[in-house]
Design a protein that fits this description.
The complex is a heterodimer of chains A (about 140) and B (about 140).
Chain A (H helix, E strand, L loop, with lengths): L1 H19 L4 H8 L8 H21 L20 H17 L3 H9 L3 H24 L1
Chain B lengths: L7 H25 L5 H10 L6 H20 L11 H18 L3 H10 L3 H24 L3
The chains are: A mainly alpha (about 140), B mainly alpha (about 140).
């Protein structure tokens, strides 16, 4: 059941990204381009997602187990550290440079966009590099 | 082009797509007890324990099927990728490294984290939005890359 639901959620999430316009990097860059012809429509994506998400998470936070009996895995971290902020900074630079964040890149790659594949392979390399660096630290 | 050129359609599509993303995120936490964060789900394929991988593959498979399901109803929206090969490689590396260190991206922090009122996610989202805005400003308006 958990795996089937993961599939359904991935499917809905992907459809949401396509319908909302998030899978078009030019549109994402238009949203980030405050000094140019700013396209604010992607702010509505976040507003819509958080509206429903907040209801789900408010219920989830009160539970120890999910409705299917899986443990509730919510982070309890509250500290704002350098890893979080510098990591987000580096992510934002890559996002602004390409117009791709991970979700839309995966959907576009699956749809057969060669440039999205290039981005996804490079992103996975970045994640693998992180795993390597972390292992070395330990 | 100016603001009035963006039709109401784009706002309605944005809101509707956003609601769908919200439903997906709510379903995932309520049924699976997990955060629908794409960078975390992808990263886990590389370093999570063997038994913690199959659901990730199923989630990504669902995402991969979504454009094909959408195509049954309508043509896929246009995708314009202005970045060249070098920019895409650099951007991909930065996104992979950055989201790994930050433990999340637009979905994990921006949607799920803000939805549960996490201070870390709010700070992360403000940071990557600012970084994205400044990057677009520098590449589009100052250097014209």
């Amino acid at each position: 059941m958990l795996n089937l639901n993961a599939f359904v959620v991935g499917l809905l999430f992907g459809l949401g990204l396509i319908i909302s316009g998030m899978t078009d990097p030019a549109k994402v860059i238009g949203f980030l381009d405050l000094a140019g012809t700013w396209d604010p429509s992607l702010a509505f994506v976040m507003a819509g997602a958080i509206l429903i998400g907040a209801i789900g998470f408010t219920i989830a936070k009160k539970r120890q187990f999910s409705l299917l009996g899986a443990p509730m895995r919510l982070s309890s971290a509250t500290k704002l550290d350098a890893r979080l902020l510098l990591g987000s900074l580096v992510f934002g630079i890559g996002w602004g440079l390409s117009g791709f964040c991970p979700g839309p890149a995966v959907v576009s790659a699956a749809a057969g966009q060669p440039k999205a594949w290039l981005f996804v392979v490079s992103m996975l390399s970045g994640m693998a590099l992180y795993t390597l660096l972390e292992r070395r630290e330990k | 082009m100016n603001l009035s050129d963006f039709t109401h359609g784009a706002y309605i599509a944005g809101l509707f797509g956003g609601l769908l993303i919200g439903i997906a995120a709510a379903m995932f936490v309520l049924l699976n007890g997990r955060i629908a964060g794409i960078s975390g789900i992808l990263g886990g394929l590389l370093h999570a324990a063997q038994g913690d991988k199959f659901w990730r593959i199923m989630f990504l498979l669902g995402m991969a099927v979504s454009p094909y399901l959408y195509q049954i109803a309508s043509d896929l929206p246009a995708v314009t990728i202005e970045a060249d090969t070098a920019q895409l490689i650099i951007a991909g590396l930065l996104v992979g490294l950055g989201t790994s260190y930050a433990s999340g991206c637009t979905s994990g922090h921006g949607v799920c984290g803000i939805s549960r009122g996490s201070i870390r996610s709010i700070a992360a989202t403000l940071t990557f939005m600012m970084a994205g805005i400044i990057t677009v400003y520098l590449t589009r308006h100052l250097t014209g890359l």
